[in-house]
From TrEMBL:
PROSITE patterns in UniProt: GNAT (PS51186)
A Gene Ontology molecular function term of the record: acyltransferase activity, transferring groups other than amino-acyl groups
PANTHER family: PEPTIDYL-LYSINE N-ACETYLTRANSFERASE YJAB
Keywords carried by this UniProt record: Acyltransferase, Transferase
Record domain N-acetyltransferase: where: 6-156
SUPFAM superfamilies on file: Acyl-CoA N-acyltransferases (Nat)
Protein name: N-acetyltransferase domain-containing protein
CDD domains: NAT_SF
Organism annotation: Synergistes jonesii
Amino acid sequence: MYDDDVRIRPAKPEDAEELADIAWRSKSYWDYPPEMMELFRGQLTIKQDFIERNPTYLIEHEETEKIAGFYALQKKDGRWWIEHLWVVPDEIGTGLGSKLFLHACEITETMGAEELYITSDPNAEEFYVHMGAEKLGERESPKVPERRLPILRIKL
């Protein structure tokens, strides 16, 4: 677990390429086959204008300023959604994901929301449930038709 040696700060547009790399490496953590990873490429590509339009925060080590993960929020149909939450593979299980998720909840609450919604990778569903989210159902993956994505919500 990390305490005072990490900080969460707003991402800058110039962080986009590094955040996309983190998303790609984090998704790869679950050993998806290369052809499936290619289907995810668009979703995992973080662009500067995305960061400018959506609240995006990263977690970095204070001493080295090495980015270890990030999340992004997006408002769709009047609801706030976690659009991304990724931690570099070497640091999965260290508590950084929990720190990012709790920060996302706090930020969303300060924007007046009472709930935060998540479309989760099936491999991350357990994490969100552990953090207090409830599963509302599933939807079909837009890229992989036989793949079901959990839809979750946490009340703030």
